[in-house]
Amino acid sequence: MKNQNLYLTGIIAAALMSSCSVTQKLNDKPYVYIQKENREQKNWKLVWQDDFNGSEIDSTKWSRIPKGESDWNRHMSTSDAVFRMEGGKLFLLGINNPDTKNDPRLFITGGIWSKNKFAFQYGRIEIRAKLGSAQGAWPAMWMLAELDKYGKYPMNGELDIMEHLNYDKIIYQTTHSHYTLNLGQKDNPPHGGTAAVEAGEYNIYGLSWYPDKIVFQLNGKDTFTYPRKEGVDPTQWPYDQPFFILIDQQLGGNWVGKVDQNQLPVEMEIDWVKVYQ
Fold it and tell me: Fewest 10 Å CB contacts: which of 26, 115, 237, 240?
């Protein structure tokens, strides 16, 4: 009976796969785009984008990231003070808190995510943006699992398309997972790399995601590859499920260091986001 059920499941899955020309979507989550098998062997097509040409953030694609308890989201705010749409660009700000009476945090930051609105499995994401620099500034573009297939963080992994610290002339491009964090396997294979960048200029930060590898990119050039490995703990590759997008102007934390409030405001300027499959 078990084998028969597996056989029927395989038939249904095959039928769903063959019915899609570019992507397949989960019936109960139509915003999730699953790339058709072997699609990466062909020319990819644009399947989702935002050019930020409106006067407000498109709420069908993004939500403002709320405050959390981790270093990265401890200072997140949904206040209009940390968001601006202007000239076809989205500005995400880190500012000194203008209302410490109602919110005791000394500074607040803006960020957006596509959680519960758009997620994809395999394909290419590109984000054209200009980064601001300040002591304690930590702008990031990254991805987390939409469906929590393997449990709570870090079991489902994390893909950091770009992280920039302070006034650095490099960006960090990294994968995190149970395998790298809890098992300490950061070199089998290497789980991250860096790339030289002029942060204050427009750059295209990207990632191409395949069933057997993740290729990080900067301005269309490959910078670092994280391969799927055989013969290691299976938690090395949780990247077989849909991920959503996060873009945020973070401030402070153990990694980036103390914030110099005299250098605020700082902002990240987003021109567009594009996803191909």
Answer: 240
